Amino acid sequence: MVRNLKTAQSAGQLVNKLGTYLRPSVPVVDEVGYQTLERAEANLVFQVISKRYEKGSIILTSNKAFSERARSSATRSWPPPSSTASCTTAK
Question: Which of 8, 31, 50, 68 to pair with 80, CA 20 to 30 A apart?
Fold first, then answer.
């Protein structure tokens, strides 16, 4: 997803590509935190999640605790270690 969003952003097609990830009834983003993301990459993922929040539910999965995601101050991971997990019902 991140690679597709970066490519679309470079080509000036980010809005169209975001729509691809917002279309499913309930999108699933698997293995959040598996790979370390740079700030710009984390911003792209955040855009998907924040736009989806306005539209409906999203499922995010990870088998890593929030505390395991920040490896050092030099690396960035998403979501930031200060994030809190929440569970909400569909709108």
Answer: 8
- Do 1 and 45 contact (CB within 8 A), yes or no? yes
Digit-coded pLDDT (tens) for 27-71: 888 777 777 888 999 899 889 888 888 888 888 888 877 666 555
Strand-pairing partners, residue 28, are: 59
**Euclidean distance between CA atoms 32 and 25, whole angstroms:** 19
Q: CA 64 to CA 31: how far, in whole Å?
A: 8
How far apart (Å, rounded) are the C-alpha atoms in residues 5 and 16?
10
- Please tell me the pTM assigned to this model: 0.63
